[in-house]
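Example 3.2
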Amino acid sequence: MLLEMRVAVFGILLLLWIFSPMPEGSTLAGAELPGWNSALAQRSGGGFGGRGGFSRPRSVTSVPRVNPSPSPSLPLPTPRGYPTFPGYPATRPPVFISPGTGFGFDLIAIVFIGGIILVSFSMIRGLQRAGTGIGVGGEPESTVARLRLATVFTPELQANLRYVAQAADTESVRGLADLMDNTAVLLLRDQAGWRFGMYEVWAGSLQKAEGQFDAWMTETRSEFVETYQHFEGREVVQAGYTPRAEPDGRYILVTLLLAASGELPKVSTPLRTSSARQALLALASSSPVTTLAAYIAWTPEASGEALTEQDLLVGWPQLELL
C-alpha cells in the first residue's frame, strides 16, 4: 500500500512538471539605434542622474520583537483507542472509499497528496512570475520609461537645465526623484514650444531593469558630445569645445529616462501634446520609495547651438509631431 502511494505521488508530480508552461524570461528590449549620422553626433550635450535606487536594500519593515509570556500548562488529553480491523495494523481508523471491497486510502495520505499538489502549483506560479517579471496582481516588478521632447530653443531653457543639473543631488533616491520633478516643471512651463516627442516603456523583472536602463542611457549619451556630465556625484565639464552654430537651428531636445519599482501611470498613444503632458506627469509621479534610477539629457548644451528640423527628422526618426 505504501509503495502504491509513493508511485501515485511521483506520477502526479511528473504530470505537473510535464504539462506546466515553462517561465518565459523577459529579454531586454533591443535598443534600436537612431539613423543619425556622425556629423549630428558631434553636437554638444549634457546629462545628469544616477542609479542609487538599484543598490538600495529592499527589506521588509522589521517587526518589534516581543518576548512571549510562558504558555499555561494544561493536562494532556487521554488518547482513546480505536478498534482494529483485520489486515490493517494501524492504530488510526481507515477511511474506505468503496466499502466492502477491501480497498481504501488512509485519510492522512489523501490530505498529504493534496498538499503536495497545491504546493507544486504554487511553485510553478511563482516561477512563472519570476521569469516574466510580473508580480502579484499582474503588476510588473519594475518599469523603465523614456520620454523625448523637442521644443523650441530658448537660451533660458538651456541655462535652466544646466542650473538644475549642477544643483541636483545625484547620489540619493530622493535627489533622483527631485531632479525628475524639477525637469518636468521646466518643460511644463515651456509647453507652448513643444513640437515633437516620443515615449517608450519597458516593463519586466527587477533584475533586468538596470540593464535596460543602462542600455537606453548609453544610447542617449552616444547621440552627442558630452560637454557637461553630473552623474552619481561626479561632475565633468569638457573644455575646449567649439560650438557648431546652424543658421536654421531652432530646437532643443530633452530626454528623460526613469526606472521605477512597479508600474507607472498609463499614457495614451499616439503621442500628442496632451499625452506628452501625461507622460511628464507619469515620470514625475515616481517617489523616493519607488525611484530606482533617473537620467536627464539635453542637446545642444553649449551656448550658441540649436538643432534644425532636419536634424530631428534624420537623427530621431521615431519622433512624432505633437
